[in-house]
Specification:
The chain has about 110 residues and is an alpha/beta fold. It contains five helices and three strands, in the order αβαβααβα. The chain has a three-stranded parallel sheet with strand order 1-2-3.
């Protein structure tokens, strides 16, 4: 019985380390700000996205992680149900990688982030 509990504890530890990663290509475009990020934010508010998770925006535009977060916040700030506290938690899981989809090193950068 003890070994069964140890096995279960080990499996739970492994599952806890597994993270859901959502990669959005073309993330600097208005579709991301108008539709995708608001939909993901609402799903997090409703606890529909499994923990832990991260959202990685990818595009050619040169943004830092914080610039990307700030741009996405501007799209959301006027939305009904927007909560600055919930946004701050959500934004801590937003990342940005600049690059060209034709450049293999972009995918290496994404793999390192994941």
């Amino acid at each position: 019985m003890r070994s069964g509990r140890l096995l279960l504890a080990g499996l739970l530890s492994i599952l806890t380390l597994m993270m859901t990663s959502i990669v959005i290509f073309g993330a600097s475009g208005d579709l991301t700000g108008r539709k995708l990020i608001p939909a993901l934010f609402r799903n997090v508010q409703k606890k529909r996205l499994s923990e832990p998770f991260q959202i990685i925006g990818v595009s050619r535009s040169r943004f830092s992680d914080d610039e990307f977060r700030s741009t996405m916040r501007k799209w959301l700030a006027g939305e009904q149900g927007f909560s600055p506290d919930e946004w701050n938690q959500f934004a801590s899981r937003l990342w940005y990688i600049a690059g060209d989809i034709g450049d293999p090193s972009l995918y290496e950068s994404i793999a390192r982030r994941i």
